[in-house]
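I had to read the description of the data format several times before I understood it. For illustration, here is how one protein appears when written out as sequence plus structure tokens:
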Amino acid sequence: MPSPQPQKQVSGRLRRLAFLLIACTVFTVLAHELKYPASAWPSEREVLSGRSIFGKPGDTRSLVTVTLPYPLRPSWAPDTEITSITCHGLVAGSLINIFQKTLDHYGLERIRELHLDVYGGCFNNRPVRGAGRPSLHAWGIAVDLDPLRNAMYMRAPEAAFSGPEYDAFWSIVEGEGAFSLGRELGYDWMHIQFVRP
């Protein structure tokens, strides 16, 4: 019968490296959680695959119409008001919370001054402009606000929503786990999405 082989000791240096690797991983996860505390939404890649919790683009069975806490003025018809919008059922509660908290914080008069009531659209079964893939609007999981003063390729400080007077609004949006492409990517400040960029 062969004698058992002595077990090799793990060097102190290797143990320290393993500990450092674990600590770095934990720190990275915690940093993400601090930046996006409420975000449990799938990534854009997952959504575009059609296999996320949001299902397939254009599936109207996933949509709900929600009543808003304050009226919105469509950017294409600024003299009219709408009191409800259609979105994916899974984001409806967070979307209503964003508008309600915005109203609670700013009040209707200040909302109008800041154009936080100018609506650019939510559900729209269409591709991304200039690309062959579906827009996140095709799922009803993105909302555009004040598109004329925050056009897609406007950057700070030209984009109105990049100003400091909107910091509280963006804190509300991010507190509901949603993402501002303006704050994440530096452009498309009108666009709020319930998907990790």
